[in-house]
Amino acid sequence: xxxxxxxxxxxxxxxxxxxxxxxxxxxxxxxxxxxxxxxxxxxxxxxxxxxxxxxxxxxxxxxxxxxxxxxxxxxxxxxxxxxxxxxxxxxxxxxxxxxxxxxxxxxxxxxxxxxxxxxxxxxxxxxxxxxxxxxxxxxxxxxxxxxxxxxxxxxxxxxxxxxxxxxxxxxxxxxxxxxxxxxxxxxxxxxxxxxxxxxxxxxx
Length: 204
Description:
Elements: H1 3-13, H2 18-25, H3 29-36, H4 44-54, H5 58-61, H6 64-92, H7 95-99, E1 103-106, E2 111-114, H8 124-149, H9 153-176, H10 180-202
Antiparallel strand pairs: 1-2
Helix pairs in contact: 2-3, 6-8, 6-9, 6-10, 8-9, 9-10
């Protein structure tokens, strides 16, 4: 008997609905339905909770092959999570672009490096775009951390993709605005994200 059949049998033997089991395991009813239909496995923590709830060992719940599959899936999920956290940290690192002296300000004779608060040698529209771009990237970074914490992998992935697109736009924009330091730093971040995206895709 496969895990999905065992879980369904245990639930019915204990007169539980999928909703009731989901509440006890702190997961969604959709997750229970997915497990019972053989479309996935719970993570290690949920598996321990199922084992404790129904007073059965994990070995009784899963066959050797299923345990290997679960371990592989768990390992893959953890690596994706790490990649996501690195991506989020890169986005939050953009905060430094506001405070570091990366922008050239002319006093008529010399060009001094200043931070974004002191930078005035551009049009008001361009300056507004600078602030908007950095704010959006930072917000996406925060969103990725939150989605990672509450284990919303799909939303974390979407946030990372939108951040990727915004960063590609920002590189082109800052290059056109002749801001070499910001452009170079954003480009380095972008390359790291490309590598993470490539590694993540290879593991699917």
